[in-house]
Amino acid sequence: MKKIVLSIALFVTVSTIIFATESAALKKSHLVGCWKYITQSRVNDFQKITNTIAKEDYVAEYFIFEENNKFRHEFINKDDVVIRIFKGKWKFVNNKIKIEYVAFRYTLTLDYFFLDQDLVLGQHFNHIIFRKEDVLNPMAKNSETL
Fold first, then answer.
1. How confident is the model at residue 96 (pLDDT cuts 50, 70, 90)?
2. Which of 13, 21, 57, 67 matches a 20 to 30 Å C-alpha distance to 6?
3. Bridge partners, 59 (sequence order)
């Protein structure tokens, strides 16, 4: 009887670890890529970053999440030139994403979810929305259209 209980406990433990690993890999595969800024709520956790750059200085904003848990937050002006790049690290913490900027000490731990091709960072009336792009380097896409 003890062997059966131990076997069941071992099976449940291994299954849980495998499921958790697959879920993390699946979440990571959805997040990795290039995301273009679409819209935001009036109040959001990214205002500290976006307030450092005058809105008229840039016309496009991208988040690029890489496989190695690094990211780039890029701002591009009307001449398709990157005027500011913030880099950092990201990781999943429970059911949230933790984003740590390295150029300055600023960390966000946010709820996130996907709506079709959109990534929503934040919750309720405190969020920012990015749309999935097909490239990892937004400047490569912009230079193709010139």
1. very high
2. 21
3. none
